[in-house]
Amino acid sequence: MRKKIVAGNWKMNKTYSEAEILITEIAEALDDVDLNDTEVILCPPAIYLEMAMDVAYESNFTVGAQNIYPADSGAFTGEISPLMLNELNVSYCITGHSERRKYFHETNEFLRLKVDALLKHGIRPIFCCGELLPEREVNQHFDVVKKQLDESLFHLTIADFMNVVIAYEPVWAIGTGVTATKQQAQEMHAFIRGLIAEKYDATTAGLTTILYGGSCNGKNAHELFSQPDVDGGLIGGASLNSDEFLQIVTSF
Hints:
This protein is of the alpha/beta class. The chain has one domain (4-249): Aldolase class I (TIM Barrel, Alpha-Beta Barrel), CATH 3.20.20. 42% of the residues lie in helices and 15% in strands. The radius of gyration is 17 Å and the shape is globular.
């Protein structure tokens, strides 16, 4: 049975004191929740990772980072390495988010290096894929996602691929308040699972966790998560409010 996951991507939000309050609120709330085998992941800004890990040791959530540079060390001012995350026992790292692709011009080839660097240090990538609105409007969305997977993930062995979580994020739905319909989400998730089966095998495809991201919130999470190939969500803005985030966590 594949893992259900709800991951909160805080992006560049919260001061230190605000982050401490939010982490504490979520941790305390999770103590009173039956998670039904759902894994909860918090991905705060990098400077809060150690604080999050300190709380996570005695709580029901794990910690993920938002970014790495694919080298163990070096003259890369402002970057952090997967080796550094490994030292903190960080479990996951978001990779390939559309904001990194757009604002920092990260290519599929560069993301492939990031995936390899994370797996080398035992950190599970949450690999984001998804199409722009113009690409969907001309029915290129399947081709775009296939290319992203082909060029960034499908070089992996089965053993390594089994440590990857995929997050489908239609770029036109990220932070816009517009959400893919449950039918659109299911269609793409099923397509991705089919690609994995073609590349590897049906067992690998059946065990791969595929998350939905893109304006997922407390009101629509249950409908999205009820789809057979949607295994949870990568949550942006709604993860910044503890009450709403917990509502999403319990939406299965």
